[in-house]
Amino acid sequence: MTQPAYVQGTLDTLLSADGSVDPAALSLADTTFVVLDLETTGGAPDGAGITEIGAVKVRAGERLGEFATLVNPGEALPPFITVLTGITEAMLRPAPPIETVLPSLLEFLRGAVLVAHNAPYDVGFLKAACARHGYPWPNPRVLDTAALARRALTRDEVPNRKLGTLAHFFRSTVQPNHRALDDAKATVDVLHGLIERLGSFQVHTLGDAVEFARAVTPAQRRQRHLADGLPHVPGVYLFRAADDRPLYVGTSKDIATRVRSYFTAGEKRARISEMLTAAVRVEAVECAHPLEAEVRELRLIAAHAPPYNRRSKFPERVVWLKLTAEAYPRLSVVRKLTEDGATYLGPFSSRRTAELAAAGVYDAVPLRQCNHKLSLRSKTPACALAELGRCPAPCEHEITPEEYDARAALPFRTATSGDPGPVVDAVLARIDTLADRERFEEAAVVRSRLIALLRALVRMQRLEALTRLEEIVAARRDDKGGWEISVIRHGRLAAAATSPPREHPRPTLDAARLTAETVLPGPGPAPAATAEESERILAWLERPDTRLVETSGDWVSPVRGAARFTSLLTRAEAAASHQDSAVRLSVSDRSDDARSHRL
Q1: Cβ count within 10 A of residue 302
Q2: What does DSSP say about strands 235-240 and 281-286: parallel, antiparallel, or unpaired?
Q3: Are 464 and 481 in contact (CB under 8 A)?
């Protein structure tokens, strides 16, 4: 049986199932250690090869017990091992095999932290032996004194991190001699010497020691005091610079635990390491529940644009696809949505995405693509698209405004607020035609346009269903038996509260409504908040355990709206991600179409 490689434990392993700190991690002085050393035949850890085991149990500097035995490895002992250790085959012949020794050793290890010098070697042999003979490995927390020494001692103090060198440096009462018990006793003195040294690095708990032994950068070690005193509650945390400028904003269900993780070896992002160097303090914003924390994070990032946050920094940098209000409407990419009688689709995160969706519309309906303001009195020379049959040439008055509106503009307006079926059918038909002609690259391009268009339609109709409502009051159970309560007005989180366990939530809910933010309606699918905030709220509302308590109206979407194409969109995105230009969508992917379509 192949054993996984030894991995130094992380801070996460010090937490119990309910997230509370393990008592053994509170203080190194209160931690029970079993300091162990093995002698082996020198081979690979395959479940055999152990010749001697020595272990010493200590706590608070006091020796609580010892475990020592020779072990019959069941194989020949190499001569150089005899020369190195003084152990002979005659000594090992009457010794018990490892399968007889393991039960006593595992009992000796129970409830303690395993300490060894070059721990991966010793742990590897013991895990392999347990696996070979059917004993479950107890997976104790492990400290490696060699790793601790590499972090705590400089080259000026010790030339290397060998056990003999460290034992001499810490004036051990026992010098290592390649016999298991003596080497374990020497490792005990080294461990105690290292624990005294760790105090100068502000390492006082087992968790600190585990992380210190790993590859933590000097900046992380120097700045880890920034995590002191933070609350174990949901909320937002802000790393601030010396001028009080926010450098980074994050959110967590447990602020203290999350911030502390930035100072562990698990954090390897270069930009975060740079941020930690510049930070001078961490500010915590406690929130009623995780949804409020997510929303506050988005708002703080939008307000301050912290340099080390990459996402959600500029929510105002969105664009819209606008169908202009004129005799011969056209699509235009604009930065703001206004109440001007035009039809809008969006918001889009970039101009490129908006233009891709617009191209999907052009594949479906004969909207003009020029930017001219056309006159009903005078004609304008037609472009090449009219000659190719891609435009009905309203510029030359080849089509009346009423006919143009019915053929080109109305399907787009209907798609944004109701049924996008005719538009989607037309795009799918074009994909079918291209695929039948084996023009697969062109079909893939049209598919990408359909994806951009469908994403925007589904997103906008979902948002509008929520944001048109003056108020929604919803609640869900939290992990402690209380209720997370949210008051949402026009898609914006107006109030958040948590009702205590074993108390009726109505008083808390009523208080939240009375103190909630006043939110005024506005145009578009995101009138009072960013689209991202409203989508976070939607995700919370759509959870199976969320209950709608009160609503100011019906929370509904169009009967034949864009939502029914969600399966089609999923299949199209999957096909695009696999660069597959000939993926068929079955009947189940289209509720209104019995045909199969190639995407």
Answers
A1: 17
A2: antiparallel
A3: no
* Percent helix, strand and coil across the chain, each to the nearest 5: 45, 20, 40
Type and span of the H or E element at 163: helix 163-169
| 156 three-class SS | coil
Active-site positions?
178
Residue 72, token pair as written in the block? 């019959």
Q: Are 362 and 411 in contact, with CB atoms under 8 Å apart?
A: no
pLDDT by residue for the chain (599 residues), tens only, comes to 343 333 333 333 334 434 444 544 558 988 999 999 999 998 778 767 899 999 999 999 999 999 999 999 988 899 999 999 999 999 999 999 999 999 999 999 998 999 999 999 999 999 999 999 999 999 999 999 999 998 889 888 999 999 999 999 999 999 999 999 999 999 999 999 999 998 888 788 888 888 778 767 778 878 888 999 999 999 999 999 999 999 999 999 999 999 988 987 778 788 898 999 999 999 999 999 999 999 999 999 999 999 999 888 888 889 999 999 888 999 999 999 998 889 999 999 999 999 999 999 999 999 998 888 887 878 877 787 777 777 888 888 888 999 999 999 999 999 999 999 999 999 999 999 999 999 999 999 999 999 999 999 999 999 999 999 999 999 999 988 999 999 999 999 999 999 999 999 999 999 999 999 999 999 999 999 999 999 999 999 999 999 999 999 999 988 899 999 999 999 999 988 875 544 444 333 444 443 334 44
The single residue listed with the structure tokens 């109440």 is 339
Rounded Cα distance between 429 and 435, Å, is 10
Instruction: At 73, give phi and psi (nearest 5°).
Output: -75, -10
Residue 408 makes CB contacts below 8 A (sequence gap 6+) with 329, 365, 366, 367, 368, 392
Say if residues 230 and 236 touch (Cβ distance below 8 Å).
no
State whether residue 43 is helix, strand or coil: coil
Which residue type occupies 273?
Answer: S
pTM (predicted TM-score): 0.69
